[in-house]
């Protein structure tokens, strides 16, 4: 095999192919990137039985062939090569990478032992890449990072007529966002897919400026997977098995007690006051017609408080909220103002979850479908 390729294009392609691979694999061969040179294009692929990535780029193919080399090592080399065309050749089990005056020789892996990549089925729908990336960044932060319960380490994708909803929870909070979905003539009117949050976050970052993303949800007796395709790039992921908790029912239909604040002012106040807090402690928020007062009691040596403007509708309210969880929700709001709504419980002395939504102005709710529910009474200290 022998080909010549633009350095920046090749470096970006290798980086994409290995980005989703785990740092350590049980089988060394799965740490490799498969490079296939043909008359049509140069194709780079990676696969670890859980997730796969594949991309095709233009190259001057002088001799076709295929080779498997260490993915992360090749990515490191490609990113540091001088600004000149890259020439890659193979001879036996050795792979030579030349660029300007730089030369590297790598040992290839047995390509015949590399598993076959999963085949992508017909597309189920099409999404705006920008909307999808924004929705993923808003929702995935609420997914659990505790592998003890795998079902809540993912983001649930729920397809219905004309829309796609993303839902995530870690038991302490729930995030939901809906975006437009074009079924593109497929017969998929309703479907669900539970995708690992880490994988979905990388897909959102990678495909965020691609225009549109084609999505395929495939189920068979052997495996259930989802595929995302855009601009000659494809990522597939096995779906998480299990029943996602029915968290949508936790969201109230109507809330008549809420406060509206400037998003940036609230973020800065929370960050300042929480400086004195001990680990896992909560901030106390007192909402009234005069505004909202933030209070933190960290230790005998340090306390803090601050008041900012808030426009309250309904009665006064006092809640304790974990600052980082609150900041995660506020940080996903893309509007100048944010609304914090107070839900009710059967116990009048026990505050219900607070709901965070976007707010275009002091008087007008945001246009997006983002909602973030945070349980305060679980976080009281």
What percentage of amino acids are in beta strands?
A: 35-45%
Name the poorly predicted regions.
none
State the major sheet. 9 strands, antiparallel
Tell me the radius of gyration. 25 Å
- How many helices? 6
Q: How many strand segments?
A: 26
- What is the CA-CA span between the terminal residues? 64 Å
CATH architecture of the largest domain: Roll
Summarize the structure in words.
This protein has 381 residues and is an alpha+beta fold. The protein folds into 3 domains: 2-113, DNA Polymerase III, subunit A, domain 2 (DNA Polymerase III, Chain A, domain 2, Roll), CATH 3.10.150.10; 125-249, DNA Polymerase III, Chain A, domain 2; 251-379, DNA Polymerase III, Chain A, domain 2. Helix content is 17%, strand content 40%. It is built from 6 helices and 26 strands. It has a 9-stranded antiparallel β-sheet. Helix 3 runs antiparallel to helix 4 (197-207) and helix 5 runs antiparallel to helix 6 (323-331).
